[in-house]
């Protein structure tokens, strides 16, 4: 059974391990940085193992940006990503956030469109080197 824990401290190493499992850079030092803050986040656990994670940043009024939706490859296709998105969107709506944004790769368009996201032009630049 998967347990969904909201806004509870999550170890930087666990997040880094999950990032690595999904093929992203670890960024462990970033997640250890005390300046790293989130507006709302949810961690999904199978017993003690972090198997899913979603994060958001926001100004708390007009906009929120959903970032870092991750599900461990061994757990993909089981509805965990959908549950994380549904919970995140419900909470941001409950907090009366006016606009919710997410950046995604083309191959993920069908997943995100299911939640009502529509496409707009966006630019993104990565300045962080992999660890």
What can you tell me about this protein's structure?
The protein is built from four helices and five strands; from the N terminus they run E-H-H-E-E-E-H-E-H. The chain has 131 residues and is α+β, with helices and mostly antiparallel strands. It has a five-stranded mixed β-sheet with strand order 1-2-3-4-5. The chain starts with a strand and ends in an 18-residue tail after the last helix. The mean pLDDT is 93.
Distance between the termini: 32 Å
The SSE string, one letter per element, is EHHEEEHEH
Q: What coarse outline follows from CA principal-axis ratios?
A: globular
- Overall pLDDT, averaged? 93
Poorly predicted runs: none
Assign a percent range to the helix content: 25-40%
Strand order within the widest sheet?
Answer: 1-2-3-4-5
Characterize the largest beta sheet: strand count, sense, and whether it forms a barrel: 5 strands, mixed
Number of helices: 4
Radius of gyration: 14 Å
Oligomer designation: single chain
| Number of E-state strands | 5
What class would the helix/strand composition place it in? alpha+beta
Strand percentage: 25-35%
Brief overview, please?
With 131 residues, the protein is of the alpha+beta class. It is built from four helices and five strands; from the N terminus they run E-H-H-E-E-E-H-E-H. It has helices spanning 12-21, 28-32, 80-94, 109-113, and strands at residues 2-6, 40-46, 49-58, 63-71, 99-102.
Fold topology:
Blueprint: E1 2-6, H1 12-21, H2 28-32, E2 40-46, E3 49-58, E4 63-71, H3 80-94, E5 99-102, H4 109-113
Parallel strand pairs: 4-5
Antiparallel strand pairs: 1-2, 2-3, 3-4
């Amino acid at each position: 059974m998967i347990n969904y824990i909201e806004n509870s401290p999550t170890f930087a190493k666990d997040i880094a391990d999950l990032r690595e499992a999904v093929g992203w850079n670890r960024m462990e030092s970033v997640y250890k940085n005390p300046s790293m803050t989130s507006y709302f986040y949810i961690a999904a656990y199978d017993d003690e193992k972090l198997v899913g994670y979603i994060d958001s940043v926001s100004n708390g009024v007009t906009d929120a940006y959903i970032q870092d939706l991750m599900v461990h490859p061994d757990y993909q296709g089981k509805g965990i990503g959908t549950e994380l998105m549904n919970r995140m969107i419900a909470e941001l709506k409950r907090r009366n956030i006016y606009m919710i944004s997410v950046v995604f790769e083309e191959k993920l368009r069908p997943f995100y469109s299911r939640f009502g996201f529509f496409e707009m032009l966006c630019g993104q630049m990565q300045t962080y080197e992999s660890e």
